[in-house]
Amino acid sequence: MDESEDSLVRRVQKGDLSAFEELINLHGSALRAFVAMKLPIPHLIDEIAHETFVFAHRHILDFQAGTNFGKWLRAIAYNLVRKETLRHQRTKKNQEKFLDHCLMQRAGRGHLTAESPIVAYLEECLEKLPERQMELLRHRYTLSESSREISKIFRQSDAWVRTNLSRIRTTLRNCIENKLDFDSVKP
Fold first, then answer.
1. What is the mean pLDDT of residues 42-54?
2. HSE of 25, CA atoms in CB hemisphere, 13 A
3. Burial of 175 by CB count in 10 Å (0-12 exposed, 13-18 middle, 19+ buried)?
4. CB atoms within 10 A of CB 131
5. pLDDT at 171 over 60
């Protein structure tokens, strides 16, 4: 007969590590499924699940035996997923700001010297852009025009300009990341 979850929790609270292993076996699959629904990034599913169990073990004395352990685990996992999502958003925003900065510098000085591989890769990636996209970048970064001013020149909406500039920056960021990834695996 299987031991109840409540008694397993009480054993863990008394320091029994094997009881915690049983709790992991009992809740591991459901927790991974929960994390996968919230953050469908394969390498992060196991990492978040692992961090959840580590946090739960460290804070097991805070858990009130007799309440729903699975629900407690999901709450911990939810907070970790939220933290990871916010971290990813900050990283993406910082990358966009850096790319904006590089484009502004490039526009102001003509061509940047390759102080880092990213600057050189940016130059290569810019060369691959269609003329219309380069023209949008020129108006935004070289001429420092607002999206409203650019929309009048291109006879498009302000939203169209902002959307296309965002797509161009994403294209450039992906191009740079691919070049960095390629260089890191080159022999």
1. 91
2. 9
3. middle
4. 7
5. yes
| Closest CA relative to residue 180, chosen from 137, 133, 125 | 125
pLDDT digits (tens, 9 = 90+) for 66-102: 889 999 999 999 999 999 888 877 777 777 777 777 7
Taking CA atoms, 150 is separated from 100, 122, 153, 165, in Å, by: 17, 23, 5, 11
CA atoms of 50 and 52, how far apart (whole Å): 5
CA-to-CA separations, 28 to 36, 80, 105, 145, 166, in angstroms, rounded: 12, 16, 50, 54, 40
Domains and CATH numbers, the chain: 5-90 (1.10.1740.10), 111-185 (1.10.10.10)
Residue with tokens 């949008």: 136
pLDDT of 9: 92
**d(Cα 176, Cα 182) in Å, to the nearest integer?**
10
Lowest mean pLDDT of 7-11, 41-45, 129-133, 161-165, name the range. Answer: 41-45
DSSP 8-state secondary structure symbol assigned to residue 59: T
d(CA 119, CA 132): 22
Give the DSSP per-residue string, 5-25: HHHHHHHHHTT-HHHHHHHHH
